[in-house]
Amino acid sequence: MQELLTVMRRLRGPGGCPWDQEQTHETLRLYLLEEAAEAVDAVAQGPQALADELGDVLLQVAFHSVIAEGEGTFSYAEVERGIVDKLVRRHPHVFGQTQVSGSEEVVSNWQAIKAAERGGKPRSAADRVPAALGALAREAKTQKIAGTAKTGREGVAAALNAAPDSEGGVAEVLAAAVAWARGLGVDPEVALRAHTARTLAALPDEAR
């Protein structure tokens, strides 16, 4: 990681790359989203593809850290220290004396520790569902928080029969499809991304 940080400092420094020097946290937002999405896609493509894409995600971490370092707001060392401390703090069954019966209790303890870190202050639903998530992933997370029932394909059929031919109607059907996916234990965002990837792979190359 130190070598990557050194390269980024060189690119951002005097005599470096004009494009890299112009970037800010704000201008890099889209790239961070894109690289994370490409890493998700690479999981289905094999270990080497995943390794390559994770490198691009790591680049974004280094890029933001070097920008912040220059601004005097935070450093990569603080980023690393923060996540290490968080992992140790939220795994008392590994690094402490807490006993757990299984993964469900691990998740329950994790949520309790998160709440304690906020001083018990509740977070709004909007704070718990990142706006930058894909629409299907965001709907799935919202349904989970809201306690929306998981459904079968009959839920989608009912939504289709009741929905008007409008933007709102389409949204209702998509929400029903997400509830159906949740009922099947399928991640709707990942499923649609995989479907789109297959469609794209089957399309002919653009003529040059």
General description of the model:
This protein is mostly helical and 208 residues long. It has two domains: 2-89, Orthogonal Bundle (Helix Hairpins); 125-208, Orthogonal Bundle (Helix Hairpins), CATH 1.10.287. 71% of the residues lie in helices and 0% in strands. It has helices at 2-12, 18-22, 29-42, 47-71, 76-89, 92-95, 103-117, 125-128, 135-146, 153-162, 167-184, 188-202. It starts with a helix and ends in a 6-residue tail after the last helix.
What is the CATH topology assignment of the largest domain?
Answer: Helix Hairpins
The tally of structural domains comes to 2
How many strands appear in the DSSP assignment?
0
Share of helical residues: over 70%
One letter per element, helices H and strands E, the order comes to HHHHHHHHHHHH
Terminal Cα span: 40 Å
Mean pLDDT level: 93
CATH architectural name of the largest domain: Orthogonal Bundle
Strand content: under 5%
For CATH, the homologous superfamily of the largest domain is named as: MazG-like
Main sheet properties: none
CATH class of the largest domain, please? Mainly Alpha
The Cα radius of gyration reads 22 Å
The coarse overall form would be globular
Stretches where pLDDT is under 50 for at least 5 consecutive residues are none
